[in-house]
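From the pipeline queue, job 12 of 40. The input is one protein chain; the requested action is below.

Action: predict structure.
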Amino acid sequence: MSPTSQPFELPKFYTPYPARCSPSLERARAHSKAWARDMDMLEVPVEGKVIWTEADFDGHDYAFLCAYTHPDATPENLDLITDWYVWVFYFDDHFLELYKHSRDLDGGRAHLDRLPMFMPVEGDITETPTNPVEAGLADLWTRTIPARSLDWRIRFAESTRNLLNESLWELANINAGRVANPIEYVEMRRKVGGAPWSANLVEHAVGAEVPAPIAALRPMRVLCDTFADSVHLRNDLFSYQREVGGEGELANSVLVFERFLGCDIQAAAELVNDLLTSRLRQFEHTALTELVPLFIEHGIDPAAAVGVGLYVKGLQDWQSGGHEWHMTSARYMNRVTTPGPVLGGPTGLGTAAARITDSLVTTAPARLRSFSHVPFQRVGNVAHPEIYMPFTLTLSPHLSGARARIVEWSHRVGILDEGIWDEDKLRAFDFPLCAAGIHPDATAEQLNITTGWLTWGTYADDYYPVIFGATHNIAAAKASNARLAQLMPVESVEMAAMPIAANGLERSLAELWTRTATPMSVPARITFRRAITDMLESWIWELNNQALNHIPDPIDYIEMRRQTFGSDLHMTLSRLSHPATPPGEAYRSRAVTAMRNAAQDCACLINDVFSYQKEIQFEGEFHNCVRVIQNFLDCGHDRGMQIVGELMNARMREFEHVVDTDLPVMFEALDLDDDARATLNSYADQLRNWLSGILNWHQNCHRYTEADLIARARPRPPTWPTGPTGIGVSAAHLTGDRFWHRARPAPSRERVALSSTLASTGLGIRDTVRLGR
């Protein structure tokens, strides 16, 4: 390979940590080659094809990778981990030679279907291996699991299955000549790329496991996901020439950005590197700001906390060591690099520490930009992108009745008496219109329930920034979340089983929960309750970002947006008249997950497009994808709006692709009966209604238009004595115009009780007074 044959120049990478090498490198090299020979991976034909020659193996140097990514592992653990990496790369090349090159989807599926038999989480392996992939997996599984807990085995088995099975997604896209959109690519790359699997092996290498109570919670999940994304994006930059140019692969982020943005390959590579840097900074931000509160909240003992610290350090070591390996391995493009550090400086193997200063200087502007949002910037009425909506809108015939009933209900439960909304706002927001679109075949009562939940969820979303965001009182917000959770019991849903509701937010939730959950089964209540509590928890994430003035990373934002928008809650509402549940295996399948995630992202991005001016200019917010893209690309709002529109439309077309192509394939692969197929097709129809109904509501309600925003921003004529005016009386105005604009009833005993509860968590006097509004 000549130096000029590389398709682009490698960008400057963010490498803030020095790479270190294990002293057991040579031992691991000798051991891994001997093990690969024993498993028939070297020079042995498989179905007439030699996957690896000895020269191939030596050039790839997987022991070098593992010695740098696990520098503190014991010699024995380093041998075992190196064998795992030899196996996983052999699997990848074996699958490429036998199934990807020949486009043999059925053969690839049959090959993958056998592999779970060689990694039982409990009991012995009973199947006999028939090829080097199976033999290697059986040997490694047997050598690894005795030292690990059942919880770790379950997580590792799932990561391994994802790594193996999602190879079919890559193969299907190759067969169709289809390049994924950026969001789809990142989601799927985590599974097929194997970095979550690598994170599990980091636990083994450092001799510490993530405690089961926190393993699935947001901070640990984000650490794993950011680690995975960083590993994969780095690999894509180095492997582009080998995969896209030499192997015909389509699963590479450089190609994804090049096609999606219509830019040249060098610009695409730079953007991939920018995203890689952003993910590494998100990793650091999460580790520094979210771990200690997580330990305290869940009572993690000091020894377990130290273990998590070792795990986090192990993930950092992996990033640094993985970069060193990519820079030297013959497997990848690495012969042409950008100029060395400022003022020259050493380059090459073993000089990583010398590159840290330049790395930090290069990435400093983007880091600072993420903490420099100026609120209430005037943005004006930014033109919306063209929105692709291929589904026909149908409205419920019960719309007019729902409009009248939601006003009466809102007055009765008290959400119009707290100073957040009034009746004019409620009517202008027109939640019955949204409900009528997403739930067109609902009965009159079902439409009332759907309308009530949409009203409550939006009211709560407006309530939290006003009551808790202005003072950054996160403790009070968590106390509110805890009380709201108590108002959603799953065993007995009678009002008598709940605490006394202390305000309109709580009273409305208790009433809705009783009406909605009563006919549900206990498992259905648990799922429905989780959709609501996940939404509430995601608002704490927003409050934390606001307290730090931290604009989130694009990927973290999009994934959290599904929860902050309440997507799972909305989707559950659209299924109230279709209670049939798809078979568990089918519902958890890649096809159904991809269909659901694509639909959720479309809806969230629609909201961000319409709410941009409202949030940025009138509310001082930055949790909006347009603003997040502006920060990431350092561009204006017109460009940010354009890219969000392209993402939205790409996800809509992905939804269509999954429904038209992937669902039928999944039906056949799982041999589903007619009832199961009908249930899943009905679910797809519900999502079509959900998407068309949400777009119609945004286009026709009066929550987001500039004229309505300006009108609502004007002070209302006071109906309460305004107090003294003139020079020298400013102290009398400290309570603010909004506290004078109407007569205020005395707070009820329940409100006083809640005020005391929240005040005990640190809520200030001003916020306690607000609860009486």
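Job complete. Residues 336-354, 716-773 have pLDDT under 50 and may be disordered.
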